[in-house]
Design goal:
By secondary structure, the chain is α/β, with parallel strands linked by helices. It is built from twelve helices and nine strands. Helix 8 crosses helix 12.
Length: 302
Amino acid sequence: MTSSVAGATPERPVVAVLGTGIMGSGMARSLLRAGLDVRAWNRTGSKAAPLAADGATVTETAEEAVRGADVVLTMLNDGPAVAAALAAASGGVHAGQILLQSSTVGPDAGADLAQRAADLGLVYLDAPVSGTKQPAEQGALTVFVSGPPAARATVDPVLDAIGRRTVWVGEVPGAASRLKLVVNTWVITMVNNIAECLNLAEGLGVDPQAFLDAVKGGPLDSSYLHGKSAAVLSGDLTPSFTLSTALKDTRLILDAARSAGVRLDLVEASADRFVRAEAAGHGGEDMIATYYAGRVPEKDGD
């Protein structure tokens, strides 16, 4: 594909990043460190503005961001948000431009976005990522991709910049998003498992550190267990991945499971915990704040 931007080459595609929240801003910085030209846009402009100091061109409109770019990378909260961004950018896109759709949107919204991309003449790559804030900032995400192989040469420099590993799932859009839901099922049940172990330790008067030491170095150990436990025990719930976003993903998993005739009891229970924690005011905190859903409210008079 021949770039339409002066100074761009096949090894240095120009990338428009639509959505610069926790994940999008980290991915944009990884692209900049790799020497790629980045245009950044976010509906709330103040979230994109800091990227200017890192070398990105921050635009006021999505249309301005995508005009002439080789790759449009979307990292937004859900399908409707991506659809709205595409509508806002539609006046600046060109036929053959690649849409690297990295938001977790689920199969139904993904099919809708693929059709919207086709209507705009875009080459659609379904490319959700696995990882949170730190991997996004370090260019160490895992990226699942499905879509036409012909787009690979153009997007490889982008994928290499944002990810430590790229898994090409197939040529049919949607295959990558389905795999992402399976991976997220593992993450969501794991984080709730950690929270419940800490809840039970607290309830039984067991030192949480004694639990962590008991599994340390054995087959039941994991760095994820220690990292999330440390966040709870220190009280630092600065989000790597917010609880409200985890709840959104949990609902996508459950919708997909119902459509497939699959029953997911642990994910149902995880959704209930996330709902309770969000209702208690923890939605904007890291998803390990599901820990707070394990506290039984005291009855009046207790």
